[in-house]
Structure to design on (498 residues):
Protein backbone atom coordinates (compact mmCIF):
# COMPACT_ATOMS: atom_id res chain seq x y z
CA UNK A 1 0.00 0.00 0.00
CA UNK A 2 1.27 3.51 -0.80
CA UNK A 3 2.00 6.05 1.92
CA UNK A 4 -1.09 7.99 0.80
CA UNK A 5 -3.21 4.86 1.05
CA UNK A 6 -1.83 4.06 4.51
CA UNK A 7 -2.58 7.57 5.71
CA UNK A 8 -6.15 7.39 4.37
CA UNK A 9 -6.64 4.03 6.10
CA UNK A 10 -5.29 5.39 9.39
CA UNK A 11 -7.48 8.46 9.14
CA UNK A 12 -10.53 6.23 8.65
CA UNK A 13 -9.59 4.10 11.68
CA UNK A 14 -9.14 7.23 13.79
CA UNK A 15 -12.53 8.54 12.61
CA UNK A 16 -14.15 5.25 13.69
CA UNK A 17 -12.59 5.60 17.16
CA UNK A 18 -13.88 9.15 17.48
CA UNK A 19 -17.35 7.87 16.51
CA UNK A 20 -17.14 5.17 19.19
CA UNK A 21 -16.23 7.75 21.83
CA UNK A 22 -19.05 10.04 20.75
CA UNK A 23 -21.55 7.17 21.01
CA UNK A 24 -20.27 6.23 24.48
CA UNK A 25 -20.75 9.81 25.67
CA UNK A 26 -24.24 9.97 24.18
CA UNK A 27 -25.11 6.80 26.14
CA UNK A 28 -23.79 8.30 29.38
CA UNK A 29 -20.70 6.06 29.38
CA UNK A 30 -18.01 8.72 29.05
CA UNK A 31 -14.79 6.95 30.17
CA UNK A 32 -13.00 10.23 30.89
CA UNK A 33 -15.13 11.04 33.94
CA UNK A 34 -13.55 8.19 35.94
CA UNK A 35 -10.89 9.57 38.30
CA UNK A 36 -9.26 6.66 40.13
CA UNK A 37 -8.94 2.89 40.36
CA UNK A 38 -8.27 0.87 43.51
CA UNK A 39 -5.75 -1.53 41.94
CA UNK A 40 -5.13 -4.66 44.03
CA UNK A 41 -2.52 -6.42 41.92
CA UNK A 42 -0.19 -5.95 38.94
CA UNK A 43 0.64 -8.54 36.30
CA UNK A 44 3.88 -9.66 37.97
CA UNK A 45 2.06 -10.07 41.32
CA UNK A 46 -0.46 -12.43 39.77
CA UNK A 47 2.19 -14.51 38.01
CA UNK A 48 4.71 -14.62 40.86
CA UNK A 49 2.10 -15.39 43.53
CA UNK A 50 -0.17 -17.61 41.46
CA UNK A 51 -0.31 -20.41 44.04
CA UNK A 52 -1.66 -18.00 46.62
CA UNK A 53 -3.94 -16.12 44.22
CA UNK A 54 -5.45 -19.00 42.22
CA UNK A 55 -9.26 -18.71 42.28
CA UNK A 56 -8.96 -15.39 44.15
CA UNK A 57 -10.47 -12.12 42.92
CA UNK A 58 -8.14 -9.35 41.75
CA UNK A 59 -8.68 -5.83 40.44
CA UNK A 60 -6.26 -4.70 37.75
CA UNK A 61 -5.88 -1.88 35.24
CA UNK A 62 -3.91 -1.55 32.03
CA UNK A 63 -3.87 -1.08 28.28
CA UNK A 64 -5.20 -3.54 25.68
CA UNK A 65 -2.22 -4.69 23.63
CA UNK A 66 -3.77 -7.61 21.71
CA UNK A 67 -7.22 -9.18 21.36
CA UNK A 68 -8.35 -12.50 19.89
CA UNK A 69 -12.00 -13.39 19.31
CA UNK A 70 -13.40 -16.89 19.98
CA UNK A 71 -17.17 -16.86 19.41
CA UNK A 72 -18.77 -15.32 22.47
CA UNK A 73 -15.43 -15.15 24.26
CA UNK A 74 -12.40 -12.93 23.77
CA UNK A 75 -8.80 -13.11 24.95
CA UNK A 76 -6.96 -9.83 25.47
CA UNK A 77 -3.48 -9.07 26.71
CA UNK A 78 -3.54 -6.31 29.31
CA UNK A 79 -0.29 -4.34 29.78
CA UNK A 80 0.45 -2.54 33.05
CA UNK A 81 3.60 -1.09 34.59
CA UNK A 82 4.93 -4.56 35.43
CA UNK A 83 4.27 -6.41 32.17
CA UNK A 84 1.36 -8.18 30.51
CA UNK A 85 -1.30 -10.67 31.54
CA UNK A 86 -3.98 -12.47 29.59
CA UNK A 87 -7.60 -11.68 30.37
CA UNK A 88 -10.42 -14.05 29.40
CA UNK A 89 -13.68 -12.24 28.68
CA UNK A 90 -16.96 -14.19 28.24
CA UNK A 91 -20.37 -12.76 27.41
CA UNK A 92 -22.20 -15.04 29.88
CA UNK A 93 -19.85 -13.91 32.66
CA UNK A 94 -19.80 -10.11 32.32
CA UNK A 95 -23.31 -9.72 30.90
CA UNK A 96 -24.80 -8.99 27.48
CA UNK A 97 -24.65 -5.19 27.67
CA UNK A 98 -21.11 -5.10 29.05
CA UNK A 99 -19.96 -7.58 26.42
CA UNK A 100 -21.60 -5.54 23.67
CA UNK A 101 -19.74 -2.45 24.88
CA UNK A 102 -16.55 -4.48 25.10
CA UNK A 103 -16.83 -5.35 21.39
CA UNK A 104 -16.20 -1.68 20.65
CA UNK A 105 -13.04 -1.45 22.76
CA UNK A 106 -9.83 -1.16 20.73
CA UNK A 107 -6.15 -1.98 21.08
CA UNK A 108 -4.71 0.92 23.06
CA UNK A 109 -7.77 1.44 25.26
CA UNK A 110 -7.17 1.43 29.03
CA UNK A 111 -9.41 -0.82 31.13
CA UNK A 112 -10.22 -1.75 34.68
CA UNK A 113 -10.65 -5.52 35.05
CA UNK A 114 -12.04 -7.35 38.03
CA UNK A 115 -11.84 -11.13 37.87
CA UNK A 116 -10.64 -14.50 39.09
CA UNK A 117 -7.08 -15.74 38.72
CA UNK A 118 -6.82 -19.08 36.91
CA UNK A 119 -4.60 -21.12 34.61
CA UNK A 120 -5.62 -22.05 31.07
CA UNK A 121 -5.36 -25.57 29.67
CA UNK A 122 -2.17 -24.43 27.95
CA UNK A 123 -0.76 -23.42 31.31
CA UNK A 124 -0.96 -19.63 30.90
CA UNK A 125 -1.76 -17.73 34.09
CA UNK A 126 -4.73 -15.50 33.30
CA UNK A 127 -7.63 -13.55 34.77
CA UNK A 128 -11.25 -14.54 34.09
CA UNK A 129 -13.11 -11.22 33.90
CA UNK A 130 -16.24 -10.63 35.99
CA UNK A 131 -16.39 -6.88 35.37
CA UNK A 132 -14.76 -4.65 32.75
CA UNK A 133 -14.80 -0.88 32.74
CA UNK A 134 -13.37 1.45 30.09
CA UNK A 135 -11.14 4.07 31.71
CA UNK A 136 -9.57 5.78 28.68
CA UNK A 137 -10.51 5.61 25.01
CA UNK A 138 -7.43 5.64 22.76
CA UNK A 139 -8.10 7.75 19.68
CA UNK A 140 -4.80 7.00 17.95
CA UNK A 141 -3.60 3.77 16.33
CA UNK A 142 -0.64 2.09 17.99
CA UNK A 143 2.11 1.05 15.57
CA UNK A 144 2.92 -2.60 15.09
CA UNK A 145 5.89 -3.85 17.11
CA UNK A 146 8.14 -4.11 14.05
CA UNK A 147 7.29 -0.54 13.09
CA UNK A 148 8.07 0.78 16.53
CA UNK A 149 11.43 -0.98 16.52
CA UNK A 150 12.47 0.19 13.06
CA UNK A 151 11.36 3.81 13.08
CA UNK A 152 13.80 5.34 15.55
CA UNK A 153 12.56 8.85 14.75
CA UNK A 154 9.07 7.98 16.03
CA UNK A 155 10.58 6.18 19.01
CA UNK A 156 12.53 9.27 20.12
CA UNK A 157 9.84 11.82 19.28
CA UNK A 158 7.02 9.80 20.82
CA UNK A 159 8.70 8.00 23.69
CA UNK A 160 5.26 7.34 25.20
CA UNK A 161 4.45 5.19 22.14
CA UNK A 162 7.88 3.51 22.27
CA UNK A 163 7.33 2.50 25.90
CA UNK A 164 3.93 0.95 25.05
CA UNK A 165 4.94 -0.89 21.90
CA UNK A 166 8.44 -1.90 23.05
CA UNK A 167 8.13 -2.76 26.76
CA UNK A 168 11.80 -3.79 26.91
CA UNK A 169 12.65 -0.09 26.60
CA UNK A 170 11.27 0.36 30.11
CA UNK A 171 14.13 -1.74 31.43
CA UNK A 172 16.70 0.71 30.07
CA UNK A 173 15.15 3.52 32.05
CA UNK A 174 14.76 1.38 35.16
CA UNK A 175 18.51 0.72 34.94
CA UNK A 176 19.09 4.44 34.48
CA UNK A 177 17.02 5.22 37.58
CA UNK A 178 18.79 2.52 39.60
CA UNK A 179 22.15 3.88 38.42
CA UNK A 180 21.39 7.32 39.85
CA UNK A 181 20.05 5.77 43.07
CA UNK A 182 23.23 3.73 43.47
CA UNK A 183 25.49 6.75 42.89
CA UNK A 184 23.61 8.65 45.58
CA UNK A 185 23.75 5.68 47.91
CA UNK A 186 27.51 5.24 47.49
CA UNK A 187 28.28 8.91 48.11
CA UNK A 188 25.75 9.39 50.92
CA UNK A 189 27.36 6.47 52.76
CA UNK A 190 30.67 8.35 52.55
CA UNK A 191 29.35 11.55 54.11
CA UNK A 192 28.91 13.50 50.87
CA UNK A 193 26.22 16.17 50.87
CA UNK A 194 23.96 16.44 47.82
CA UNK A 195 23.43 20.07 46.81
CA UNK A 196 21.85 22.12 44.04
CA UNK A 197 23.57 24.94 42.18
CA UNK A 198 22.24 27.41 39.57
CA UNK A 199 21.30 26.31 36.08
CA UNK A 200 21.06 29.93 34.94
CA UNK A 201 24.11 32.12 35.49
CA UNK A 202 25.72 35.31 34.21
CA UNK A 203 28.88 33.37 33.27
CA UNK A 204 29.29 29.92 31.71
CA UNK A 205 32.31 28.44 33.45
CA UNK A 206 33.75 25.20 34.75
CA UNK A 207 34.51 23.69 31.34
CA UNK A 208 35.67 24.56 27.84
CA UNK A 209 32.38 24.46 25.95
CA UNK A 210 30.01 26.69 23.99
CA UNK A 211 26.98 27.69 26.10
CA UNK A 212 23.33 28.28 25.32
CA UNK A 213 22.44 31.95 25.73
CA UNK A 214 19.09 33.24 26.98
CA UNK A 215 17.83 36.62 28.16
CA UNK A 216 16.44 37.73 31.51
CA UNK A 217 13.82 40.39 30.76
CA UNK A 218 13.60 41.95 34.23
CA UNK A 219 17.35 42.34 34.67
CA UNK A 220 17.82 43.17 31.00
CA UNK A 221 20.87 40.92 30.68
CA UNK A 222 21.91 37.82 28.77
CA UNK A 223 22.35 34.68 30.87
CA UNK A 224 23.74 31.24 30.19
CA UNK A 225 22.60 27.69 30.82
CA UNK A 226 25.34 26.00 32.81
CA UNK A 227 27.99 23.99 31.02
CA UNK A 228 29.26 22.51 34.31
CA UNK A 229 28.57 22.68 38.04
CA UNK A 230 32.24 22.86 39.00
CA UNK A 231 32.79 26.47 40.03
CA UNK A 232 29.76 26.68 42.31
CA UNK A 233 30.58 23.36 43.96
CA UNK A 234 34.14 24.52 44.66
CA UNK A 235 32.74 27.67 46.22
CA UNK A 236 30.90 25.38 48.65
CA UNK A 237 34.18 23.66 49.54
CA UNK A 238 35.56 27.13 50.32
CA UNK A 239 32.54 27.63 52.58
CA UNK A 240 33.37 24.52 54.60
CA UNK A 241 31.11 21.87 53.05
CA UNK A 242 33.98 19.43 52.73
CA UNK A 243 32.26 16.77 50.60
CA UNK A 244 29.61 17.79 48.08
CA UNK A 245 28.06 16.42 44.92
CA UNK A 246 25.37 17.33 42.43
CA UNK A 247 23.53 15.19 39.89
CA UNK A 248 21.92 17.32 37.24
CA UNK A 249 21.44 18.47 33.69
CA UNK A 250 24.30 20.15 31.82
CA UNK A 251 23.77 22.15 28.62
CA UNK A 252 26.31 22.58 25.81
CA UNK A 253 25.56 24.24 22.48
CA UNK A 254 27.57 21.76 20.47
CA UNK A 255 27.15 19.04 17.84
CA UNK A 256 24.75 16.12 18.12
CA UNK A 257 25.82 12.51 17.57
CA UNK A 258 25.27 9.01 18.92
CA UNK A 259 27.23 10.03 22.04
CA UNK A 260 26.38 13.75 22.28
CA UNK A 261 23.08 15.37 23.25
CA UNK A 262 22.89 19.15 23.87
CA UNK A 263 21.57 18.47 27.36
CA UNK A 264 22.93 15.56 29.35
CA UNK A 265 23.21 14.38 32.95
CA UNK A 266 26.40 14.37 34.98
CA UNK A 267 27.51 13.82 38.55
CA UNK A 268 30.15 16.20 39.86
CA UNK A 269 31.72 15.69 43.28
CA UNK A 270 34.38 17.48 45.32
CA UNK A 271 36.26 16.35 48.42
CA UNK A 272 38.41 18.61 50.55
CA UNK A 273 41.85 17.37 51.59
CA UNK A 274 41.91 14.75 48.81
CA UNK A 275 43.97 14.64 45.61
CA UNK A 276 43.29 13.27 42.14
CA UNK A 277 44.70 9.86 43.11
CA UNK A 278 42.15 9.57 45.91
CA UNK A 279 39.43 10.52 43.44
CA UNK A 280 40.74 7.96 40.95
CA UNK A 281 40.18 5.18 43.47
CA UNK A 282 36.80 6.60 44.38
CA UNK A 283 35.77 6.77 40.71
CA UNK A 284 36.56 3.17 39.81
CA UNK A 285 34.90 1.91 42.99
CA UNK A 286 31.87 4.16 42.51
CA UNK A 287 31.34 2.84 38.97
CA UNK A 288 31.81 -0.79 40.04
CA UNK A 289 29.39 -0.37 42.96
CA UNK A 290 26.83 1.33 40.73
CA UNK A 291 27.00 -1.40 38.09
CA UNK A 292 26.62 -4.16 40.67
CA UNK A 293 23.54 -2.41 42.05
CA UNK A 294 21.98 -1.52 38.70
CA UNK A 295 22.70 -4.62 36.58
CA UNK A 296 24.29 -7.12 38.98
CA UNK A 297 27.73 -7.30 37.33
CA UNK A 298 30.81 -5.25 36.46
CA UNK A 299 31.18 -7.00 33.10
CA UNK A 300 29.18 -5.84 30.09
CA UNK A 301 29.14 -6.64 26.40
CA UNK A 302 28.84 -3.42 24.45
CA UNK A 303 28.13 -3.80 20.74
CA UNK A 304 29.83 -7.20 20.76
CA UNK A 305 32.87 -6.21 22.85
CA UNK A 306 33.23 -7.39 26.45
CA UNK A 307 34.31 -4.68 28.87
CA UNK A 308 35.31 -5.37 32.46
CA UNK A 309 34.90 -2.51 34.96
CA UNK A 310 36.28 -4.44 37.93
CA UNK A 311 38.85 -2.26 39.80
CA UNK A 312 41.68 -1.48 39.65
CA UNK A 313 41.65 0.12 36.20
CA UNK A 314 44.78 0.63 34.10
CA UNK A 315 46.69 3.93 34.59
CA UNK A 316 48.77 5.73 31.94
CA UNK A 317 50.07 9.26 31.55
CA UNK A 318 48.99 11.10 28.41
CA UNK A 319 52.56 11.09 27.10
CA UNK A 320 52.89 7.34 27.77
CA UNK A 321 49.71 6.69 25.84
CA UNK A 322 50.95 8.78 22.88
CA UNK A 323 54.16 6.76 22.89
CA UNK A 324 52.35 3.40 23.07
CA UNK A 325 49.52 3.99 20.60
CA UNK A 326 50.88 6.72 18.29
CA UNK A 327 54.62 5.97 18.51
CA UNK A 328 55.24 9.65 19.34
CA UNK A 329 57.80 10.20 22.10
CA UNK A 330 57.23 13.66 23.55
CA UNK A 331 60.09 13.25 26.03
CA UNK A 332 62.45 13.95 23.10
CA UNK A 333 60.63 17.17 22.16
CA UNK A 334 61.83 20.09 24.28
CA UNK A 335 60.48 23.27 22.68
CA UNK A 336 57.16 24.56 21.43
CA UNK A 337 58.69 25.07 17.98
CA UNK A 338 59.72 21.40 17.80
CA UNK A 339 56.21 20.42 18.83
CA UNK A 340 54.63 22.64 16.15
CA UNK A 341 56.93 21.12 13.52
CA UNK A 342 55.79 17.66 14.62
CA UNK A 343 52.18 18.78 14.42
CA UNK A 344 52.67 20.00 10.84
CA UNK A 345 54.22 16.66 9.85
CA UNK A 346 51.19 14.90 11.32
CA UNK A 347 48.84 17.11 9.31
CA UNK A 348 47.40 19.18 12.15
CA UNK A 349 46.25 22.76 11.65
CA UNK A 350 48.99 24.61 13.51
CA UNK A 351 48.54 28.13 14.88
CA UNK A 352 51.51 30.30 15.84
CA UNK A 353 50.57 30.36 19.54
CA UNK A 354 50.27 26.58 19.86
CA UNK A 355 52.47 24.99 22.51
CA UNK A 356 53.83 21.53 23.13
CA UNK A 357 50.87 20.92 25.41
CA UNK A 358 48.40 21.71 22.62
CA UNK A 359 50.17 19.30 20.27
CA UNK A 360 50.21 16.52 22.90
CA UNK A 361 46.46 16.98 23.27
CA UNK A 362 45.95 16.86 19.47
CA UNK A 363 48.00 13.66 19.12
CA UNK A 364 46.11 12.05 21.97
CA UNK A 365 42.66 12.91 20.57
CA UNK A 366 43.57 11.90 17.02
CA UNK A 367 45.65 8.76 17.52
CA UNK A 368 45.13 7.44 21.05
CA UNK A 369 41.47 7.72 22.09
CA UNK A 370 40.29 5.20 19.47
CA UNK A 371 42.40 2.48 21.17
CA UNK A 372 41.04 2.97 24.70
CA UNK A 373 38.43 0.20 24.99
CA UNK A 374 38.89 -1.25 28.49
CA UNK A 375 38.59 1.20 31.41
CA UNK A 376 41.75 3.27 31.74
CA UNK A 377 42.78 6.42 33.59
CA UNK A 378 44.80 8.83 31.43
CA UNK A 379 46.76 11.17 33.71
CA UNK A 380 49.07 14.21 33.57
CA UNK A 381 47.35 16.47 31.04
CA UNK A 382 49.08 19.61 29.73
CA UNK A 383 48.36 22.84 31.62
CA UNK A 384 47.12 24.48 28.39
CA UNK A 385 44.07 22.19 28.22
CA UNK A 386 43.47 22.01 31.99
CA UNK A 387 42.78 25.55 33.21
CA UNK A 388 41.29 24.46 36.55
CA UNK A 389 43.72 21.69 37.53
CA UNK A 390 46.70 21.87 39.90
CA UNK A 391 50.17 21.71 38.34
CA UNK A 392 52.31 18.64 38.85
CA UNK A 393 55.14 19.81 41.18
CA UNK A 394 57.69 17.57 39.41
CA UNK A 395 56.68 18.80 35.94
CA UNK A 396 54.84 22.16 36.11
CA UNK A 397 53.88 21.98 32.40
CA UNK A 398 51.56 19.09 33.32
CA UNK A 399 48.64 18.87 35.73
CA UNK A 400 47.52 16.36 38.33
CA UNK A 401 44.48 15.36 36.34
CA UNK A 402 42.88 12.22 34.94
CA UNK A 403 40.27 11.33 32.39
CA UNK A 404 38.60 7.91 32.53
CA UNK A 405 38.13 6.34 29.10
CA UNK A 406 35.99 3.34 28.17
CA UNK A 407 35.00 2.20 24.68
CA UNK A 408 37.06 5.13 23.29
CA UNK A 409 34.79 7.57 25.19
CA UNK A 410 35.71 9.88 28.02
CA UNK A 411 33.27 9.04 30.82
CA UNK A 412 34.90 10.95 33.68
CA UNK A 413 37.21 13.93 34.18
CA UNK A 414 38.95 14.78 37.44
CA UNK A 415 41.87 16.58 39.01
CA UNK A 416 43.55 17.92 42.06
CA UNK A 417 41.82 21.29 41.99
CA UNK A 418 43.89 24.39 41.37
CA UNK A 419 43.62 26.44 44.56
CA UNK A 420 46.36 29.04 43.91
CA UNK A 421 44.42 32.22 43.06
CA UNK A 422 47.42 33.88 41.38
CA UNK A 423 48.03 30.90 39.09
CA UNK A 424 44.28 30.62 38.43
CA UNK A 425 44.06 34.27 37.38
CA UNK A 426 47.00 33.85 35.01
CA UNK A 427 45.37 30.79 33.41
CA UNK A 428 42.03 32.58 33.10
CA UNK A 429 43.82 35.43 31.34
CA UNK A 430 45.37 32.95 28.90
CA UNK A 431 41.87 31.60 28.26
CA UNK A 432 40.61 35.15 27.65
CA UNK A 433 43.34 35.58 25.00
CA UNK A 434 42.22 32.32 23.35
CA UNK A 435 38.63 33.58 23.34
CA UNK A 436 39.75 36.84 21.72
CA UNK A 437 41.51 34.89 18.95
CA UNK A 438 38.31 32.99 18.11
CA UNK A 439 38.11 30.06 20.55
CA UNK A 440 34.41 30.15 21.49
CA UNK A 441 34.93 27.38 24.06
CA UNK A 442 37.68 29.13 26.04
CA UNK A 443 36.97 29.70 29.73
CA UNK A 444 35.67 33.15 30.76
CA UNK A 445 37.22 35.28 33.49
CA UNK A 446 35.22 34.69 36.69
CA UNK A 447 36.14 37.35 39.25
CA UNK A 448 33.83 35.99 41.97
CA UNK A 449 35.40 32.54 41.69
CA UNK A 450 38.84 34.13 41.98
CA UNK A 451 37.59 35.96 45.07
CA UNK A 452 36.50 32.61 46.54
CA UNK A 453 39.97 31.19 45.90
CA UNK A 454 41.49 34.20 47.64
CA UNK A 455 39.30 33.44 50.67
CA UNK A 456 40.97 30.03 50.59
CA UNK A 457 40.19 26.70 48.91
CA UNK A 458 41.72 23.76 50.81
CA UNK A 459 43.51 21.03 48.85
CA UNK A 460 40.63 19.42 46.98
CA UNK A 461 39.98 16.57 44.57
CA UNK A 462 37.06 16.78 42.17
CA UNK A 463 35.44 14.66 39.47
CA UNK A 464 32.68 14.80 36.86
CA UNK A 465 31.16 11.66 35.36
CA UNK A 466 28.71 11.37 32.45
CA UNK A 467 25.73 9.31 33.54
CA UNK A 468 24.23 8.94 30.05
CA UNK A 469 27.33 7.28 28.61
CA UNK A 470 27.64 4.97 31.61
CA UNK A 471 24.02 3.86 31.12
CA UNK A 472 24.67 3.36 27.39
CA UNK A 473 27.45 0.92 28.27
CA UNK A 474 25.35 -0.91 30.86
CA UNK A 475 22.36 -1.34 28.53
CA UNK A 476 24.22 -1.96 25.25
CA UNK A 477 22.50 1.10 23.78
CA UNK A 478 24.08 2.26 20.49
CA UNK A 479 22.91 5.89 20.82
CA UNK A 480 22.71 8.35 23.69
CA UNK A 481 19.13 8.99 22.55
CA UNK A 482 18.29 5.45 23.65
CA UNK A 483 19.02 6.32 27.29
CA UNK A 484 17.42 9.80 27.42
CA UNK A 485 13.65 9.67 27.71
CA UNK A 486 13.12 12.79 25.62
CA UNK A 487 16.27 13.49 23.57
CA UNK A 488 16.74 16.74 21.67
CA UNK A 489 15.14 16.43 18.22
CA UNK A 490 14.90 18.63 15.18
CA UNK A 491 11.34 20.04 14.89
CA UNK A 492 9.17 17.69 12.85
CA UNK A 493 8.35 20.29 10.23
CA UNK A 494 12.08 20.80 9.61
CA UNK A 495 12.74 17.05 9.44
CA UNK A 496 9.89 16.56 6.96
CA UNK A 497 11.41 19.10 4.56
CA UNK A 498 14.65 17.13 4.27
Amino acid sequence: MSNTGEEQSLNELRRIRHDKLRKLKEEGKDPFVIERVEISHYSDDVKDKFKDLENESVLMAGRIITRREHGKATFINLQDKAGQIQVYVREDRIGDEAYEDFQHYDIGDILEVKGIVFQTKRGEISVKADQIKLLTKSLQILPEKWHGLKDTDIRYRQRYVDLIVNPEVKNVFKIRSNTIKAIREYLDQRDYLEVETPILDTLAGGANAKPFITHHNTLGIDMYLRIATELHLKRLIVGGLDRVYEIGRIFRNEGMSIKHNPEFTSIELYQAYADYKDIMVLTENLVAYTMEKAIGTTKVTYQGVEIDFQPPWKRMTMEESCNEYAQVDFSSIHTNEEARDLGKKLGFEIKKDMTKGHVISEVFETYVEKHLIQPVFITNHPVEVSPLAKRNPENPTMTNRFEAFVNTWEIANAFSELNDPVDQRERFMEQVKEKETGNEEAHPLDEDFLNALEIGLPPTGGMGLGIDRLVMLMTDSPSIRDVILFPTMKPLEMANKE
Q: What stands out?
A: The mean pLDDT is 94. The first helix runs from residue 3 to 26. The two ends are 23 Å apart (CA to CA). The chain has two domains: 11-142, 165-313+374-497.
